[in-house]
Write a structure and sequence with these properties.
The structure is a homodimer.
Chain A: E1 3-8, H1 12-24, E2 28-34, H2 38-48, E3 55-56, H3 59-64, E4 70-73, H4 80-89, E5 94-97, H5 104-115, E6 121-124, H6 131-139, E7 146-156, H7 167-170, H8 178-194, E8 197-205, E9 216-223, E10 228-237, E11 243-250, E12 253-258, E13 267-272, E14 283-286, H9 292-306, H10 316-334, E15 340-341
Helix pairs in contact in A: 4-5, 5-10, 8-10
GO molecular function, one term (chains A, B): nucleotide binding
GO cellular component, one term (chains A, B): cytoplasm
GO biological process, one term (chains A, B): NADPH regeneration
């Protein structure tokens, strides 16, 4: 069985990332396209092998095509709630790009819309599909009771960032600007490994005019499990190494997951033992990471095929949590780092 | 001119660290000793070449010896305020070991006592004497406007820690236990480099029963300058690398100061440039660090010789700030990471 995918919003990421992923999956076929500027949809359709008759003048027209099995929407984030409502109206399963929504009100609407239907609704949060997550879950029981962590993703400002020219990013209507745009990835990864965040205290600042809003975040977190840690995120600095790592501290050892781009492969390093005197040698594991974008499409395709929304790995309720952490951090920063309880759905 | 030093409290650190430092400085001479258990003072005096007639039965007797030029006190932290009051009464300059006091009330009393006299009163906070601080101050203007930092000092629990047996550490009357005991060092270094801390939000936890109280801290800070960052401290984990580093991010570059014990020497690495495209090569500087304990004694000796308390590099008001940050972190943690303004003197 082949699933026909209707792509709504044929911008950079649709062309550079979604299309190759969809084309690499046997059972998926790019079958229809819509873009506000139709000429861009035409170019995309040609690249994708979509017949010109399936390039639509309106989203509704695409949604009314009975041959389309699900919608892949890559829209300015503030449009996510409307396209989901519209897809449900037309009985189409839909995946949207992260972040889930422009603000928590819209995010809540999306969660409620998803609850109101049996259609699979998914958020394309590919970081939840990294195979490193499962590897870490395997290792963690060996290091005892987890007590704390540091998560740090920092990098220099990229003056050639192709996404900088995106109008909705330059003048963000969505909370957090780049902090939510990229931060939800980091938080998806963190929470898949360590569970939900309960309290956030932190500070944000704007380093780059081009970010349109605050673009760095330094925070401390308390998880629902009682684990404490720091979460640091920003790619708006002057020259510095691009570095991304999670260190997990426990009472019988520690694990470092480093996926900085300077490494040949993402690397997990761990040691066990209750103290300095009983420390084991380090075990180092290089990860052959999956193509996470393909994995998320495969996952959503399975849910659509099975008509079973419970199979969706990142449903709106999960992506809601990622954005809620950013929202809490922004609120905290407005109050000099107050403790903000993360909104629950 | 030789200055005669009266040592009050002849425990491990007096014998292992202060005595060699005092003996290495030409103008200082260990000249009198007092310990609650006199036999320990006798052993110390013999090692130090102090005549047995100058081993006293009481602190007052030592303070009444007119030949003693200043007092070096290494007492359980809750005794600092009393020994300072007593030294002032006897017109003796005095240095005490960090942390300044067992709590903020006592710390404030010490600051007030120091203000009430022209005698030099100092806190032995040797980390404020690291030559790395001056090197960093030289480099920082090259990286532009500082926006943020991460300070992280983490290590495994040391089951053979010789200080663990110290009674006042096992049953801490002082706030923060090991968090203040070691944390004030880290905060002395941080604040010498980046200035005062205004707000603290964070979480603490107790990992080791032997700590007597919370022993790890994960926090976010906002400095008076507006710079934001995270401060992570703890040596109570299971097996992990002992690692201590400060990364400073600015809009035209970044600096990493790594003084992890695994390195041959403390190392400062920096790069400049406004973004990834304009990043300079890295400059790496290995620091031949000074003997900071000798430096702090030399500094205090100069102040005593000159009868000028303004020469003291770490007067009580400065050490007050270091402890106030820990106090704020502890209060914050009690309230799920609330924003706590650091008490000012």
């Amino acid at each position: 069985m082949t699933l026909n995918v209707g792509i709504v919003g044929t911008g950079i990421f649709a062309s550079d990332a979604h299309l190759p992923a969809i084309q690499a999956i046997d059972k998926l076929k790019p079958a229809a396209a819509y873009n506000r500027t139709k000429s861009k949809a035409d170019v995309f359709a040609e690249k994708a092998g979509i017949p010109s008759g399936n390039v639509y003048e309106s989203v509704d027209a695409l949604l009314e095509n009975p041959e389309i099995d699900f919608v892949d929407a890559l829209l300015p984030v503030q449009s996510n709630v409307d396209i989901i409502r519209n897809a449900i109206k037309h009985e189409k399963p839909i995946v949207i790009e992260k972040p889930i929504a422009a603000n928590m009100k819209q995010a809540r609407e999306i969660v409620e819309l998803a609850s109101s239907t049996d259609l699979p609704i998914g958020i394309l949060e590919q970081w939840a599909f990294f195979s490193s997550i499962n590897k870490l879950r395997e290792i963690l029981p060996q290091i005892g009771n987890i007590v704390s962590f540091t998560y740090k993703a920092t990098g220099p400002w990229n003056a050639n960032n192709k996404y900088l020219a995106t109008a909705w990013r330059q003048n963000p209507e969505h909370i957090g600007g780049f902090l939510s745009d990229g931060g939800v990835h980091q938080l998806a990864l963190l929470t898949e490994i360590l569970g939900h965040v309960e309290y956030v205290s932190g500070h944000t600042r704007q380093v780059r005019k081009e970010s349109g809003t605050d673009d760095i975040l330094f925070s401390s977190l308390k998880l629902t499990s009682g684990v404490i840690g720091t979460f640091t995120y920003g790619s708006a600095f002057g020259a510095t190494d691009k570095s991304t790592s999670l260190v997990i501290y426990a009472d019988n050892g520690s694990v470092t997951y480093d996926f900085s781009p300077s490494l040949p492969k993402p690397t997990i390093t761990y040691q066990t033992g209750a103290n300095a005197q009983e420390a084991s040698e380090k075990t180092v594991i290089e990860i052959d990471e999956v193509n996470a974008i393909q994995e998320e499409f495969k996952n959503f395709a399975s849910a659509v095929e099975a008509k079973d929304k419970s199979l969706v790995v990142v449903p709106p309720a999960k992506a809601f949590h990622h954005l809620a952490i950013i929202a809490a951090a922004l609120e905290s920063s407005k109050n000099n780092g107050s403790s903000v309880k993360v909104e629950v759905v």
